[in-house]
Amino acid sequence: MFKLNPITFVVVGIALILTTIAGFYFLKIRPEQEEMGYWIDKNQKLDEIISEGSKTAAVERVREAMTKVRDAESAWKLTAQRRTPSAGQINLTPQRWQLVVNTRRWHGRVEADLRNWIRRAGVRLVSPAGGIQVPFPTDMPNELVQYYFNYPAFPFPIAIWDLGAVTVAGTYDQIMSHVKSWSAIPHYIASVRGLSLTGSGSRLQATYGLTLVVYINTQFVSGGPAENGKVPDLGSTGDQAQGGQNQSGTMAKPGPGGGGGGAGAGPTPIAIGGGR
17 partner at 20 to 30 Å CA-CA among 32, 63, 132, 170? Predict the structure, then answer.
């Protein structure tokens, strides 16, 4: 019968003991050491955070952030002053019926500003033949606020007008200077698209689409955004139809004799107002 050498028992015993110790180390001791090292590292980081040097650095970061906020506010204030209608031109603080009157006065000012801006570049306006026309504001005060100024669909009153195609004539340099100048027009934000040139030499014509955005820099709108901000609509349904009731905030511009300027004539307003 085969007999094991006593040394074999010793070797096997030692191997079992070593295996047990290794298993205990890898399954128990090592994970605990790693966890202890993790918490020691976190505690060191926390100590660094609450140290005087860390507090000073945190205060400095807050100071730098506040400086950036003030710089951004100053930059926006300058932009708002230059790219929005200047004080006194238009605001939405008067009672809504008075706002109808004020908006029509301002409408004429906007058209004059656009025509003067074209003339200053030295180009000749070919079309629209009667000059650039801005959508004429409705005489319905609630529609005026909701659709003409898109409030409260936007958190601030803003008018967005697609003024259609504009054609100007001049030299190449005059035309290029004129088209680029739209990005710098004061009190408005203008977007030019689809520029095309025809002609030759110094007898050139350029046609492009023009969109105008007018952000009304005001902290208050008469009546506010709620339903109780509305005023009663006067007149019968037929009388109200003269003002449009078309959920665009516009109407046909009255002619010299007081008559309508023709339904659907003129540029297109982009109305965002809800409640349709």
Answer: 32
